[in-house]
């Protein structure tokens, strides 16, 4: 038996920093990753798809998002089993019980709307653990697994949430207790554990049977999501009583959210940054967050701003990570002597230079910005 394990589609997700056509392109990429599962399933011969929670970003979605999402699922062409997660729980406002979803749900889409065993076909069962609220107060997985006896069928547990061994707050009541899952695997009550919640590809425990696939398209920066953009191809040998499992990740994501850190003190540092940004491919599908530190002249800061302005037009988004950026601008001696101005204008520049050297005050920042603009207008701040 072969199937695809995916999770955390979060269809309808928006990223506040994406502007212009970047957000619609990002949304389309998320839907395309879903629809593309049909091609992957056909290529590898998968029977069905399990989506282990957070199919949608939340329950209050526009009709267009719901309709387009269902069309993407229809395109998969084989049975798709959706598990409600913490983003889209089966509460009173659930998208899964909305009139639009019920009217337009394709025949190949099945909502795992009750805890317990669901038959996929004779000999194959899903053990589902759907969320009914955003803040459960118990380990719902343990509750479902307790008393679940081995059966002749091959069983796949489909669940959502954090696992205690991976969470720093192990006392959290909703965490999935690994010991209980391992016990169910050991007694043959279940044979594979399809998890959702972590957006990076992650194996849990040492059995080789418990995985997070991560989100099929990136949702956060690389310091948060180290390995997103995958779907898992899962094989379970039904002919062997031990039900051996093979898991193969397949990369399907096309976007990147990258964090670049660097020390920027001189024009050479700016040139190196420019080269690194220039060498990055697929800029229109790449988001870049810069964490820069350093002390520079007004001329170099103007050159840095010109560099960032240029690449912000090429990347899906590029900007400074303000909380981790610390750039000090100090006018160099004689930096503004050759502007070819005199009289009142020269006196104004001297006053701006003096203010810019005052430190971290708001007036100093304004003076630095004004001097930088002056240099750029005279083409001395060109990247």
Automatic annotation (TrEMBL):
Gene3D superfamilies linked to this entry: 3.60.21.10
Keywords: Exonuclease, Hydrolase, Nuclease
GO molecular function: exonuclease activity
Source organism superkingdom: Bacteria
Domain (Calcineurin-like phosphoesterase) ranges: 1-162
InterPro entries assigned to the protein according to its UniProt record, in alphabetical order: Calcineurin-like_PHP (IPR004843), DNA_Repair-Maintenance_Comp (IPR050535), Metallo-depent_PP-like (IPR029052), Mre11_N (IPR041796), UCP033093_metalloPase (IPR014577)
One Pfam assignment: Metallophos
Family to which the UniProt record says this protein belongs: Belongs to the SbcD family.
Protein name in UniProt: Nuclease SbcCD subunit D
Provenance organism: Mycobacterium parmense
Source organism phylogeny: Bacteria, Bacillati, Actinomycetota, Actinomycetes, Mycobacteriales
């Amino acid at each position: 038996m072969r199937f695809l394990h995916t999770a955390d589609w979060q269809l309808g997700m928006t990223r506040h920093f994406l502007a212009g056509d970047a957000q619609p392109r990002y949304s389309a990429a998320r839907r395309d990753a879903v629809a593309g599962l049909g091609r992957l399933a056909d290529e590898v011969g998968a029977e069905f798809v399990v989506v282990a929670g957070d199919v949608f970003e939340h329950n209050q979605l526009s009709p267009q998002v719901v309709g387009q999402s269902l069309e993407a699922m229809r395109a998969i062409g084989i049975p798709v089993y959706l598990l409600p997660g913490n983003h889209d729980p089966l509460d009173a406002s659930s998208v899964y019980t909305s009139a639009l979803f019920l009217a337009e749900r394709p025949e190949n889409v099945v909502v795992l709307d009750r805890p317990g065993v669901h038959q996929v076909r004779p000999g194959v069962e899903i053990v589902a653990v759907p969320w009914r609220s955003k803040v459960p107060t118990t380990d719902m997985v343990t509750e479902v697994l307790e008393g679940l006896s081995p059966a002749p069928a091959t069983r796949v547990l489909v669940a959502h949430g954090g696992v205690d061994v991976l969470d720093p707050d192990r006392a959290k009541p909703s965490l999935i207790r690994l010991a209980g899952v391992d016990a169910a695997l050991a007694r043959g009550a279940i044979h594979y554990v399809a998890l959702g919640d972590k957006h990076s590809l992650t194996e849990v425990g040492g059995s080789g049977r418990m995985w997070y696939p991560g989100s099929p398209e990136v949702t956060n920066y690389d310091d948060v999501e180290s390995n997103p953009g995958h779907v898992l191809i899962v094989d379970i040998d039904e002919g062997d009583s031990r039900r051996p499992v093979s898991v193969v990740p397949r990369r399907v994501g096309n976007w990147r959210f990258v964090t670049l850190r660097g020390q920027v003190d001189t024009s050479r540092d700016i040139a190196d940054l420019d080269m690194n940004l220039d060498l990055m491919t697929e800029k229109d599908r790449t988001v870049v967050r810069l964490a820069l530190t350093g002390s520079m002249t007004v001329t170099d800061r103007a050159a840095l701003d010109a560099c960032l302005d240029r690449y912000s037009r090429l990347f899906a988004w590029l900007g400074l990570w303000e909380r981790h950026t610390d750039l000090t601008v100090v006018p160099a001696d004689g930096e503004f002597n050759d502007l070819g101005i005199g009289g009142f204008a020269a006196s104004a520049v001297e006053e701006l230079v003096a203010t810019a050297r005052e430190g971290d005050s708001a007036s100093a920042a304004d003076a630095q910005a004004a001097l930088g603009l002056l240099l750029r207008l005279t083409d001395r701040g060109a990247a």
